[in-house]
Write a structure and sequence with these properties.
Length: 214
């Protein structure tokens, strides 16, 4: 557990330093869903920083080995987690596939790209989790194809109540390298965020819809 805390703090620190996470309580960001948020996370930026990329690859791979030693296939969720999933699969010397949000409207209409023989034990890799809906859509697609989904690992979670409920209802185990609470603490500790903004950011996580309409 102590190592997990160290990994969580280091991951949060890395995300802040490379600008993968941006915080602005006074001028909130607008997500694709229309939700107003004081935080924006883009883990694709990790790929441009070799040291951070190597750290995340190793941390995710070790977490998969620790929790799911019986894993046979790694699946990345398109598009943000494709590269991270490939890195984990390469590190663990396992087959890799990626899962689209829906089947293609041309060609073979594939939703899952790659080969997953029926009955194989799969771990899903995500870059981040908010409500969990897109992540769980990938899980459903894999299950429908005959795979056994052991669980999911991700770099970051916003810790939204809706996301936690959705994961619980789907009975999908989620483990992340770091999370919103630790990131906020780290941001204050390292001077990326003034402590006076902490309460505002905590209110957002508790009720993001209401926070955005204030």
């Amino acid at each position: 557990m102590e190592n997990h805390i160290k990994v969580a703090e280091t991951t949060a620190s890395n995300l802040l330093k490379i600008g993968a996470v941006k915080l602005n309580a006074s001028e909130p960001f607008t997500w694709a869903s229309g939700l107003k948020s004081p935080i924006y996370c883009d883990n694709r930026r990790i790929l441009s920083y070799p040291e951070v990329r190597a750290f995340v690859k190793k941390a995710l791979s070790e977490r998969v080995k620790e929790i799911y030693p019986e894993v046979e296939v790694i699946a990345g969720v398109a598009t943000g987690a494709i590269a991270h999933g490939v890195l984990v699969a390469e590190e663990l010397e396992l087959p890799f596939v990626y899962v689209r949000s829906k089947g293609k409207e041309h060609g073979l209409g594939n939703q899952i790209e790659g080969v997953v023989p029926e009955g194989k034990k799969v771990v899903v890799v995500e870059d981040l989790v908010s409500t969990g809906k897109s992540s769980l859509a990938a899980v459903d697609a894999l299950i429908d194809s005959g795979s056994t989904v052991l669980g999911m690992v991700a770099i970051f979670t916003y810790e939204l109540n809706q996301g936690q409920r959705n994961m619980q209802l789907a009975k999908c185990k989620l483990d992340t390298l770091t999370n919103y609470s630790i990131l906020i603490k780290q941001a204050i500790h390292e001077g990326f965020l003034h402590h006076s903004n902490k309460e505002t950011l905590e209110r957002w996580r508790e009720n993001p819809e209401q926070w955005g309409s204030r």
